[in-house]
Amino acid sequence: MIGYVTLGTNDFEESSQFYDSLLTLCGAKRLMEFDGFILWGTSPDKAGLALAKPFDEKPASVGNGFMAAIHATSKDMVNELHGKALELGGENEGDPGPRGDGFYAGYFRDPQGNKLNVFYFGK
User: Fold this and answer.
1) 1 pLDDT higher than 80
2) Are strands 91-98 and 115-121 parallel, antiparallel or unpaired?
3) What is the dihedral of CA 17, 19, 20, 25, to 10 degrees?
């Protein structure tokens, strides 16, 4: 259904380093890259996360109410990714923990202010 989500950035170098370090923990790598754009994913046929400088050359801004979610394969992976995001300069938006029956998640903002969630469905 969703091919990829794109996040804007005003500091492409800092943001690309943040996501290189973070997304490797879930097996993602750079699948596509050109000037001002990087797409990370585990496979071209699965959903990915992209980072871009705004095409209109205006400053990037955080969308109010927007959040991208990263699927984890276990609760431990949620904890690891959330911890790594904070270690890399992200801001905590909600500690990892249960959020309803079978849904485990942690929330953070990247150094540019984009809100993300790391989640796992299961027991």
Assistant:
1) no
2) unpaired
3) 140
Looking at residue 23, the DSSP 8-state letter turns out to be: H
Query: Considering only the top CATH level, what class is 4-53+68-121?
Result: alpha beta
Kind of pairing, strands 37-41 and 29-34? antiparallel
Q: Where are the domains of the chain?
A: 4-53+68-121
| CA 29/CA 19 separation, integer angstroms | 9
pTM for the whole structure: 0.90
Say which DSSP state 3 is in.
-
Structure tokens at 37: 């754009």
Task: Give 47-78 pLDDT, tens digit per residue.
Answer: 999 999 999 999 999 888 899 999 999 999 99
DSSP string, 48-86: EEEEE--TT-SPP-PPTT--EEEE-SSHHHHHHHHHHHH
Alpha-carbon distances of 82 from 31, 42, 60, 92, 120, rounded to whole Å: 23, 19, 24, 8, 12
Task: Round to whole Å and give the CA distance between 107 and 76.
Answer: 15
